[in-house]
Fold this sequence. Notes:
About 35% of the residues lie in helices and about 15% in strands. The chain has twelve helices and 15 strands. It has helices at about 15-30, 50-60, 80-90, 110-115, 135-140, 195-210, 250, 275-285, 295-300, 305-330, 355-365, 390-405; strands at about 35-40, 100-105, 125-130, 150, 155, 155-160, 180-185, 210-215, 240-245, 260-265, 335-340, 345-350, 370, 370, 385. The relative contact order is 0.17. The strands form four sheets. A seven-stranded mixed β-sheet has the order 2-10-9-8-7-3-6, sandwiched between helices. Strands 11-12-15-14 form a four-stranded antiparallel β-sheet. The chain has a two-stranded parallel sheet with strand order 1-13. The chain starts with 15 loop residues before the first helix and ends with a helix. Residues about 1-5 have low confidence and may be disordered. By secondary structure, it is α/β, with parallel strands linked by helices. The structure holds pyridoxal-5'-phosphate (PLP). Pyridoxal-5'-phosphate (PLP) binds near residues 218, 247 and 249. Pyridoxal-5'-phosphate (PLP) binds near residues 108, 112, 132 and 218.
Amino acid sequence: xxxxxxxxxxxxxxxxxxxxxxxxxxxxxxxxxxxxxxxxxxxxxxxxxxxxxxxxxxxxxxxxxxxxxxxxxxxxxxxxxxxxxxxxxxxxxxxxxxxxxxxxxxxxxxxxxxxxxxxxxxxxxxxxxxxxxxxxxxxxxxxxxxxxxxxxxxxxxxxxxxxxxxxxxxxxxxxxxxxxxxxxxxxxxxxxxxxxxxxxxxxxxxxxxxxxxxxxxxxxxxxxxxxxxxxxxxxxxxxxxxxxxxxxxxxxxxxxxxxxxxxxxxxxxxxxxxxxxxxxxxxxxxxxxxxxxxxxxxxxxxxxxxxxxxxxxxxxxxxxxxxxxxxxxxxxxxxxxxxxxxxxxxxxxxxxxxxxxxxxxxxxxxxxxxxxxxxxxxxxxxxxxxxxxxxxxxxxxxxxxxxxx
Length: 405
Ligand code: PLP
């Protein structure tokens, strides 16, 4: 007898980061003089690269001239950007991706939340634990909560794949064969990045089982080691089992500007033989009117030599923070993961404190804001996430305060 996973039968009370924001606001109200160091939310702090600013100005000026004014953008994206993405982020790596397999969007959050719409309601969804909450919440909101579909005699469900110290934060294949598998590498929150062999094993598993992998590469720019793939399309056989979601937020600082892309190969089908490319094209075209022209020109500028160099420098500055935070914590005796191919540092809480107890301790005694690991899933309990997206000075200050605890 199938037992629905009761944890998923209800929606979480509120989004993790809203809960943190409320706690921090309450603390600040009580302690108006406290100078908080915020290493919690994964938002960037460096301004946009000069090449992007230049492209934005130029594109804005074009809007004043009737000859170059742009109205509605093509709903799947301007060809100049689809080409730049396919050429630089895929074909340059040897991945066989055509320009028109790139769907431009306003970011990876909406794409990773919306992509479930092209899968059947009765599907089994596998997510890592801990997990970027959007994958779970969007499927629960779509009704995949352990319900039975009489027509297909199938149950929907969301199943967790624990990522622990024991398995090196690399998920094992789930007990229940899934239809859709979400993988984020480099991972938010653990900072783990799958090696080429590990990702190839997942591609082979998905092809063997007729499953589709949704690969979130939002942190691809932070990869520093050669054996870590930048795209799932570097793996053999991935065109028949993978969708990739990209973001311009964490590499180029577009968290406020908003730009992303989803790549769906034309040969990709679900387990019923339904091609997914036309479904996403239809979904995108029906519910989305395209990222703004000026923002797509800004995205194109990321792929110029100037843009690439500026992005490398920006990522380098965040990674300097990551290395500093990681080494400092390790020096204080903390067990620390991540921070090598990722802007996230994933540390074990001291003295077996729960994630929220450690959150309160840091907030109250060090005035440092981080993110409790348990907010990302049960396997995140007794872990804590710090980000390297602050300034170097803020990172140094945070480590000094934690040292004094
Ligand atoms: N995917 C992951 C794994 C993330 O951590 C985030 C943001 O924190 C996003 C997607 C959202 O990216 P975007 O800003 O492009 O919506």
